[in-house]
Amino acid sequence: MPSEPAVRTGPTAATPPKAYDGHRAATPRDARADRKNVVRDVRKEAPPRQEPEAPATPTLRLLDEQGARRPEPGLDRWLADLDPTAADEAARTAARATLVRLYEDMVVARRVDAEATALQRQGELALWPPLLGQEAAQVGSARALRDDDFVFSSYREHAVARVRGAALVDLVRVWRGVAVSGWDPYAINMASPQVIIGAQALHATGWAMGVQLDVDAGRVDAGAGLPVGVAYFGDGAMSQGDVNEAFVFSSTYRSPVVFFCQNNQWAISEPVALQSRVPLAERARGFGMPGVRVDGNDVLAVLAVTRAAVDRARRDGGPTLVEAVTYRMGPHTTADDPKRYRDAAEVEEWTGRDPIARYEAYLRSVGVLDDAEAARVRGVADDAAAELRAGCVALADPPPLSLFDHVYAEPHHALERERAEYAHYLASFGDDDGPGDDGAGGPGAPGDRAASGTGATTGVAR
Amino acid sequence: MTGQTLTLAKALGAGLYRAMTDDDRVVVMGEDVGRLGGVYRVTDGLQAEFGERRVLDTPLAESGIIGTAVGLAYRGYRPVCEIQFDGFVFVAFDQILSQLAKMHARTGGKVRLPITIRIPVGGGIGAAEHHSESPEALFAHTAGLRVVSVANPQDAYTVLRQAVACDDPVIFFEPKRRYHLKGEVDLDPVDPLPLDRARVVREGTDVTLVTWGGLVGTALDAAVAASDDGVSVEVIDLRSLSPIDHDTVAASVRKTGRVVVTHEAPRQAGLGAEIAATVTDRCFEYLEAAPVRVTGHGMPYPPAKLEGHYLPDLDRILDGVDRVLGRVEPFVPTAPAAPRSGAADARPVEAVAR
């Protein structure tokens, strides 16, 4: 096989790619070669790596993998309210409550995520994109925000949505196929999740430009700190034009935005090395904004880093790119099979960095969590799962003519005619159920709706 | 009436000035729209009046312009985006088709995006490539958008204000070759024609001629020429390309029994096809002849020295009128020579087919 030698020597060639944590493979070919090396167990004998030209971007961390809290002066000041040993009793009580809440947010997120995966396996959802492994990145960042900030996320930010106030059932409407978005964006200041990779980065930027206009018009008091637009996206999105354009616009206009990139190492089957030859956070410098790399499985570090980035934006300091280094422990979606493209050893390695286990060890070590409290949190999580399940299975199919309801905000004569035409067609079935209906009736039965004749009075004359 | 004689470009600027004065959430954004006043000077003077943030020179990134406009609208603003030339809009296609057009539907009506996208459109000005496109069908095919094309200074002023006030996204086409057309503009029109309605710009009884934008003037010239020949042509300026005002077209065709549609864009899947199909559907029993289309050819827009052979002009439109009247022999294509057969077998295909 002529290609075999090249594949075999990829990462061990004379000019190995500049490597850093999570970026050991520079190209998919290198990644495949890496996997072969793993199989042959030669990784330990990897050749010396070329020294990077500049010191690698540090990955900020407060909890080590055993859950021991380490000082990090640059970050500690952002967590002054989270000292479980504070001398002042009120401060100590508040700190402990906040620390437990972070734990609860993560445990509930994981439990709800598992329940949604189960609902998909049982045929109640068509699809589900699990967040397993990314709980700390999502909870830590979302808990750094104010109510009047606005989140523009991708489709995996279930924990963010819950923290923002989304009802659990609203997380699954889209995946059950009964709606294309789950909640009123203005009720929780979080946009409908985005499927087109990276498109929301521009929306967050434009929203933040609106904040600046509001300051000009006297509608926002800059003295109270600017509301901040927050874009969530993944490592794959870093290759999208829209994300890079958002960096240009926000940096040029110094708009109050935080770009929160969850580098979970994989864009379906493509390793992050295919998106970038340098740590993602380093890209920020070229756009004229700070880039910060944080251990995305360390909820305290994520909270601190995001608080700092948000604070900078509030003070009219402009955008920040945060790269949260984490790992997608599950498949891209329930339709994906990651065993086809990544090896078990890598998953095993990241299992040892579990964000919840690490944080739980920390909480127990400082006496904030005991078995009783952990059991209470598990109960909250189980209740949430039950709530999600009950809400999910109760979601009825929307009525057929609701198809036409929101295509336009203002009256539209052509669509009204189409609606009347389709209502007329449905009405031709009389009291019978519509075509292809299984006879179950219910709110989705076309005959019910057609009889109401919504829109039947408009524009049907020839 | 407060009237002024304005060019179409100046009328657009007057419409923007008025919209920005009436509502401080109206913002103008695009490449070169601020300090320069736009490459066609449509936004001339607006930045001096309203400041650098409300009349925003943007980085050269069309997707960025539309995507940030979506974010601004999320926060309650009414952005008016300028895409500098028709051929540049495709860079922003995802933001227009997947984001802007769908947002109201996908949020169950919770998020309104009242964004107007102004696009200089069409050929006939001897421009370089990507500067003479007619992409209206691509947008008219996209649910969630409204599409309009103005042809005179009054509509430029009025329809632009209506578009900015509309809570739906509007693609607003400005025919480049008519930017310098002058006309009387009533700055406070009483009861103007709604945004989504066509206008009969010349009445007639024999043939209905449907067009919009840059070809409205040519169509009117053709109607005058036809009348010298004893043919009475009714000309409809469609104005709204989505939704199409089929009621106005159908009412005319029921009177004339004949319809010609002319547009600059290529024929295949152009709006002419939509109009011909709908006329056939709604006026079948009134038609004296099959609808005729006079359009650009199925090809990339040609170099300037050949655009005269691409764009419908007075003679081609009159030829279309003659065809719909049965005054000229219909074109019958010949079968192409079979490869390597060498035989000059040029039988009419329709004869073969029948």
From TrEMBL, chain A:
Cofactor(s) required, per the database record: thiamine diphosphate
Any Gene Ontology biological process: branched-chain amino acid catabolic process
Domain named Dehydrogenase E1 component: residues: 105-378
Highest taxon in the source lineage: Bacteria
Composition bias, Basic and acidic residues: 20-52
Region Disordered, residue ranges: 1-65, 427-462
Residue spans of biased composition, Low complexity class: 446-462
Pfam families xrefs: E1_dh (PF00676)
InterPro entries per UniProt: Alpha-ketoacid_DH_E1_comp, DH_E1, PdhA/BkdA, THDP-binding
Keyword set, alphabetical order: Oxidoreductase, Pyruvate, Thiamine pyrophosphate
Any one GO molecular function term: magnesium ion binding
PANTHER family linked to this entry: 2-OXOISOVALERATE DEHYDROGENASE SUBUNIT ALPHA, MITOCHONDRIAL
Name this polypeptide is given: Pyruvate dehydrogenase (Acetyl-transferring) E1 component subunit alpha
Organism: Cellulosimicrobium composti
Gene designation per UniProt: pdhA
UniProtKB/TrEMBL annotation, chain B:
Essential cofactor(s): thiamine diphosphate
InterPro entries in the record: THDP-binding (IPR029061), Transketo_C/PFOR_II (IPR009014), Transketolase-like_Pyr-bd (IPR005475), Transketolase_C (IPR033248)
Gene3D superfamilies: 3.40.50.920, 3.40.50.970
SUPFAM superfamilies referenced in this protein's UniProt entry, alphabetically: Thiamin diphosphate-binding fold (THDP-binding) (SSF52518), TK C-terminal domain-like (SSF52922)
Pfam families on file: Transket_pyr, Transketolase_C
Coiled-coil positions: none
Annotated segments matching region Disordered: 335-354
Domain Transketolase-like pyrimidine-binding: 6-181
Protein name: Alpha-ketoacid dehydrogenase subunit beta
Assigned keywords, A-Z: Oxidoreductase, Thiamine pyrophosphate
PANTHER family xrefs: PYRUVATE DEHYDROGENASE E1 COMPONENT BETA SUBUNIT, PYRUVATE DEHYDROGENASE E1 COMPONENT SUBUNIT BETA
Comp. bias regions, Low complexity: 335-346
GO MF annotation terms: magnesium ion binding; oxidoreductase activity
